[in-house]
Design a protein that fits this description.
The protein is of the alpha/beta class and 278 residues long. The chain folds into 2 domains: 218 residues, Rossmann fold (3-Layer(aba) Sandwich); 37 residues. A 9-stranded mixed beta sheet has the order 3-2-1-4-5-10-6-7-11. Helix 1 packs parallel to helix 2. The longest helix has 33 residues.
Length: 278
């Protein structure tokens, strides 16, 4: 990094490191796991945004090229993150400015839901990947991200259900594995194949029930390749409970209630004191 730079505005479409809370854990955790896959490799980071993730990958990769459609994001990244094995170029996910079979790993986090050119993006990824190359990609699960809480992100153009995400990968790669991610006072990523003996205890009514795998992952993270798949190191990126978003919201609400209650309890005394001062 080179000096201090003002942050790009967080619009909800491109994450910036200055934004804290759950979204920070989710984004950083993905890049931390991808960093284990890209060691010594040539890497393409599609939709790199302001460049923080590409810079993280460059700490261990042979070379990293960050590509983003926004000229402002690319200019910011070029000025803020500088290393001999790191470069940033303007381009789209369906028109990557790299030659055929030129990278070992393609990384693309929380990108595919922002456009509807999914097949074109996958064809372009296959074009720039070497024959034994690896794709590491993430996308929100529409079932858990939008359908259950009845929430719509205005920046999302085409979200995918899990079976659609899996089907898209299956159409372009011989092999793929899907991991689930959700916030649990930290970010958790675990393989979500329904077979691995890993699970969680979830409250159901008045009891706790064991659920195989990760219950209701909000995000799906996948590795895909025509060769052997690397295994992502699943686990937790911890966050102090006091910094967890639900706790912070409740703390602010409690502080506001305490302030209001304090005023209601003390205003008679204040009124009497004013009378004595007259």
């Amino acid at each position: 990094m080179n000096g201090k730079f003002p942050s790009l505005q967080f619009t909800g479409e491109r994450y910036v490191p200055e934004v804290g809370g759950n979204i920070q854990l989710e984004h950083l955790h993905r890049y931390l796991l991808a960093a284990r896959v890209v060691k010594g490799k040539a890497v393409l980071d599609i939709a790199c945004g302001e460049g923080y993730g590409s810079a993280m990958l460059a700490l261990g990769a042979a070379r990293v090229t960050g590509v983003d459609i926004s000229p402002d994001a690319i200019a910011h990244a070029q000025a803020k993150y500088r290393a001999g094995n790191l470069e940033f170029r303007q381009g789209a996910c369906e028109a990557v400015p790299l030659p055929d079979a030129s990278v070992d790993v393609v990384v693309s986090f929380e990108t595919i839901e922002h456009h509807d050119q999914h097949e074109a993006m996958m064809r372009e990824i296959k074009r720039v990947l070497k024959p034994d190359g690896v794709l590491v990609i993430s996308s929100p699960d529409k079932l858990e991200y939008s359908d259950r809480p009845q929430y719509r992100n205005p920046h999302h153009v085409r979200e995918l259900y899990r079976h659609e995400f899996s089907g898209l990968l299956d159409a372009f790669f011989r092999k793929h594995a899907i991991y689930g991610q959700r916030v649990m006072y930290g970010s958790a990523i675990f393989i979500d194949d329904g077979l691995t003996e890993a699970g969680c205890f979830e409250r159901a009514g008045g009891s706790l029930e064991y659920v195989r795998g990760m219950p209701r992952p909000v995000y799906l993270m996948a590795v895909a390749s025509d060769a052997e798949l690397p295994i992502l190191a699943g686990g937790m990126l911890e966050q102090p409970i006091a910094q967890a978003e639900p706790v912070a919201v409740r703390d602010a609400h409690i502080a506001a209630m305490q302030g209001s209650l304090s005023w209601k309890l003390t205003w008679p005394l204040r009124f009497i004191a004013m009378l004595f001062r007259r």
